[in-house]
Amino acid sequence: MKKYNNGDFRKSDVGSIFEVYGWVNKRRDMGGVIFVDLRDRSGILQVVFNRDYLKDDFKLAESLKNEYCIKVTGKLELRGKGLENPNLATGEVELIVQNLEILSECDILPFNVYEDSNINENVALKYRYLDLRRESIKEKILIRHKICKVARDYLNDLGFIEIETPILCKSTPEGARDYLVPSRINKGAFYALPQSPQIFKQLLMVAGFEKYYQIARSFRDEDLRSDRQPEFTQIDMEMSFATEEDVWSVTEGMIKKIVKEVKNISLPDFPRITYHEAMEKYGSDKPDTRFEMELLDLTEILRGTKMNVFNNAILNGGIIKCLIVKNNGDKYSRSDVEHLTDFVKIYGAKGLAWLKYDNDTFNGVIAKNLEDEKLELMKKTYNISNNDLILIVADAPKIVYASLGALRLKIGKELNLIDENKLNFLWITDFPFFEYSETEKRWKAEHNPFTMLKDINLINEPEKCIARSYDLVVNGYELASGGVRNYKRDDLAKVFKALGISDEEAEKRFGFVLEAFKYGVPPHAGIAPGLERLVMVLTNTQDIKDVIAFPKTQSASDLMSDAPSEVSPEQLKELGIKLDLEEEND
Amino acid sequence: MKKYNNGDFRKSDVGSIFEVYGWVNKRRDMGGVIFVDLRDRSGILQVVFNRDYLKDDFKLAESLKNEYCIKVTGKLELRGKGLENPNLATGEVELIVQNLEILSECDILPFNVYEDSNINENVALKYRYLDLRRESIKEKILIRHKICKVARDYLNDLGFIEIETPILCKSTPEGARDYLVPSRINKGAFYALPQSPQIFKQLLMVAGFEKYYQIARSFRDEDLRSDRQPEFTQIDMEMSFATEEDVWSVTEGMIKKIVKEVKNISLPDFPRITYHEAMEKYGSDKPDTRFEMELLDLTEILRGTKMNVFNNAILNGGIIKCLIVKNNGDKYSRSDVEHLTDFVKIYGAKGLAWLKYDNDTFNGVIAKNLEDEKLELMKKTYNISNNDLILIVADAPKIVYASLGALRLKIGKELNLIDENKLNFLWITDFPFFEYSETEKRWKAEHNPFTMLKDINLINEPEKCIARSYDLVVNGYELASGGVRNYKRDDLAKVFKALGISDEEAEKRFGFVLEAFKYGVPPHAGIAPGLERLVMVLTNTQDIKDVIAFPKTQSASDLMSDAPSEVSPEQLKELGIKLDLEEEND
Predict the structure, then answer these.
(1) Cβ(A282)–Cβ(A294) under 8 Å?
(2) Which of A21, A64, A177, A180 to mutate to test the interface with B (most CBs of B within 10 A)?
(3) Is the peptide bond before A569 cis (omega within 30 degrees of 0)?
């Protein structure tokens, strides 16, 4: 087997004979001498073929093309003076080849693997095994491995036990859409692929394993976006006799260790803010805190104004908030601001009021209509100064948060306010337990109905119920979600009642879990960081496909193997199903 | 969070106050004093409730029942003289309780978890979370975790990279039955759950990852036996620039390390025998070498006998082999031997001839018919002595191997010849590449058609073709299977031709792999030890369900969650399928 890593050769190895393997990354034919960058997983070594020296083998060397897989034996030498390559770890040495063996040739490539040029994504995915040879992709897969290794080492050291839970599970009607698997033995019945190991990990707590983890594959049959894949992986954890502080401490320790080992960055402790605070400040429960520009309140300042648009909003129970774009007012023309208005309308806002402050005066349409004392109070309260742009939304709180939260991100990106080198982790806590569904006209569980409430006695005032749940957020992304679980059957019954779930329905949906909770269930809590998201953040990519060895397209296809594909009628017959396509006769 | 492991308390901890958590494993009420064995994952600690001391809390203590989950605070003390429990790691100490909190109560249990009595399997599986509390099951899950940890540490140290391959794959028509997953986005098309990551790991070699592993979930929709489950796990490996010696060395090192860390046994190097030798000696390609009693050849000795049953067998191209049951002839009465005859008939043998040697004479029907010089030669060749039983099958080689191989195991078990403490690992090498299918009247690939042949020039003489494949066998079980892969397209084309696979069919079935092999494919080889089998062997269980946290029954059902189950018509409609049950109108 291969004994050496090409990327590891150094000056100290000079003088010895080595047998090395790899791929021709590039070749330069200088007539009697051919230089080849020989690449393996570890890196590149320059190997040199010399006509005077190699005789017959030189013809073979002349036949080499990019991505030929070869084996060479030769002596490691120092490169000539001035010929060193400081960009290469092995740049001071080269291997003078004595023997060459071509292990396998390479046809004309669909794209060059040594260049990080713009490759058509569909072509890259079809030839994923070539795409994976590219340094930028390979590196991400290696980092993914390293992250898993560090996570496992860390959790093992803390006494966590990795336990595999089933992939062939029971379909549950809530949540996202399940992938189904027809059963051949129990015809007419179906397994579902798990959206998470949630129920199993809670049952492992009932079983007494106390500290569980699993780097667990999960599945969601959703319409895909650039950060979604049909299958994804979670660093799933659950612990007994634990509170949120324990979960935070374990998780934070793990993330810090991963970031230290992968990026050599020592992270500070993660700030914690409540859901309410996050919405007030950032208009989002997954705020990007790499830049300031917080949402500022104008409700009190503008209360009682004669401007109906503001006054009516307040009278209707709404709020008024603004963003102050400091010292960048000149970057936004009147028509730019009109575009921002169109943008906030996507989020339900009826409009975007704006003010500019310049030459020590407020400008803009509403500057003329707003009372001077209001403007002055605004200026004083928020230190408004020249070249500031103030963008205001007055509406129901949800709409104000959503529109200004999105606008904040948009402007942050437009003005390059975001330091891409930062890793801003933070905990969001105290989520509302219930969410009112306008369409269904009833209260629904915001997250997991099995999460514990901060105060079960408030169960009849759903709007006041806070869940003992938490999210770990990084750079504007939700990395992990978790909670302290409600393990008390009586309290669960109250929750189900508040959610309008009948005893019968509860039994059907959660029966075996409720049954399990009869037998000495320990208090427990957990979390599940998304592995892909973590790799993406640590490798600076926005595309989840970059961090999965064999990803699927947005239409959930594998272009390389052509999955999914048609199967034989016999296979379907055996499973007791048949196709039911509306466009069958097309 | 829980700070202490109940099983870890020792004399040196005496005198301090501790807060401990756990389950009431057993309680003994002695009137004013109640002793509780408080169990957690780590073990048991005796906690003592004293009426004089606890006052009101004592009533609470009196209410404790088995499997209540509690939290107690108290002082660790030495047990009284003579009251130590040498069977318990914590047997010298006990916790004198100052405070008790009942975290959750326990209903009447379907079975006692502290006793390893015979529990109805279906009940155990329905309440798997309670079953997992039993020491004997819990221990196996913990050992499974440990095995995975040791394997990962070992492979990581060797530079292997763990890479996740897809679960949603393409269905391929060969091999065992696929589990299918209907696609919602591509209606009428299906994913298949992978029977192994074989194709993906080979493509990872093409991609240049060189050393890959994955503790990988695999799926086979087969009719289940006690050692099969619909989903199972393999320690899947593949390496580039590697020969069989490299694979054997890596695998053997890993298994030795696992066995050392789990059982503190230092294994010797694994013997290697060829497939041919294994069949000749043991009648099996997965021989149990924990006992001798090899198959002995009688073909040459009996050639030319006047006994037609033997002579005809030889004339028809068959062979004659026997087992000599040493010094145990008296254990098998004539009717016992008749039962053995029935047994070998299961394996296609037409009969079982037998001889007994006793009082320095051969006895039995054939002793009268066989020539004396044949009997004498037999006796001399195989050192036959008094109280030996000789069991003979004359038939086609396949039938002789199968029947005597099975008989050898049966007698080995009956006579307790097998040392259950032994771990006999061995490599079986040089498998035949082709196997003649009597039913299809054609040559088929014995294993994987992508395995390299020892000599491709023999391709037109299929019966002579040896594969560069190998199995790792332990105690009569196939633990792992692997091979050096055929990475040369020209040679693969020859193999497909010999298998009667047209270019078109090859393209359809393996097209994207053949395409990948155009682009500088490295020589590579691999193996995939079965994790469940390894855990079973190291924990001395015959039942695969014991080593899986949430196993399925023989009818592939999860009795706990009731999977598989019916799903809604809407779910099916959305997937473009409908049920097609013959007994639909029942």
Answers:
(1) yes
(2) A180
(3) no
Q: What is the ipTM of this complex?
A: 0.95
Q: How far is A451 from chain B (nearest CA, A)?
A: 17
What would the pLDDT profile of A196-209 be if each residue is shown by its tens digit?
Answer: 999 999 999 999 99
Report d(CA B257, CA A149) in Å as an integer.
19
Beta strands A272-274 and A425-429 are parallel
Note the residue count of chain A: 586
pTM of the model as a whole: 0.95
- B478 near B471, Cβ under 8 Å? yes
The SS3 call for residue A526 is strand
The answer, yes or no, to whether the previous bond of B564 is cis (omega within 30 of 0) is yes
Rounded CA gap, A200 and B550, in Å?
Answer: 8
Q: Which of A145-149, A465-469, B106-110, B440-444 has the lowest mean pLDDT?
A: B440-444
Residue labelled with tokens 């029977």: B195
pLDDT digits (tens, 9 = 90+) for B81-102: 999 999 999 999 999 999 999 9
How many CB atoms are closer than 10 A to CB B198? 21
Residue A549, Cβ neighbours under 10 Å: how many? 23
Residues 6+ apart with CB under 8 A from B394: B298, B302, B309, B310, B313, B314, B318, B319, B320, B353, B400
Close Cβ partners of A550 (under 8 Å, ≥ 6 residues apart): A128, A558, A560, B165, B166, B200, B203
- Please provide the average confidence, as pLDDT, over all residues in chain B: 94
Q: Closest approach of chain A CAs to the CA of B532, in angstroms? A: 11
∠ Cα A335 A339 A343 (to 5°): 165
Q: What pLDDT digit, counting tens, does each position of B279-316 carry?
A: 999 999 999 999 999 999 999 999 999 999 999 999 99
Alpha carbon distance B274, B282 (integer Å) = 12
Which residue out of B135, B171, B190 would a mutagenesis test of the A interface target, given it has the greatest number of A Cβ atoms within 10 Å?
B190
Residues of B with CB below 8 A from A233's CB? 164
Q: How far is CA B125 from the centre of its chain?
A: 20
Q: Which helix or strand (DSSP H or E) is residue B97 part of?
A: strand B93-104
Burial class (CB in 10 A: 0-12, 13-18, 19+), A86: exposed
> What structural domains and CATH numbers belong to chain B?
6-104 (2.40.50.140), 291-418 (3.30.1360.30)
* CB within 8 Å: B558 and A170: yes
Between chains, do A2 and B241 touch, taking CB under 8 Å as contact?
Answer: yes
> Which stretches within B40-169 are classed as H helix?
51-54, 56-62, 121-126, 128-131, 135-157
CA B401, CA B294: separation in Å to the nearest integer?
A: 11
Q: Compute the distance between CA of residue B91 and CA of residue B93 in angstroms, rounded to an integer.
A: 6
For residues A311 and A294, give the distance between their C-alpha atoms in angstroms, rounded to a whole number.
Answer: 23
- The string of pLDDT tens digits covering residues A320-378 is 999 999 999 999 999 999 999 999 999 999 999 999 999 999 999 899 999 999 999 99
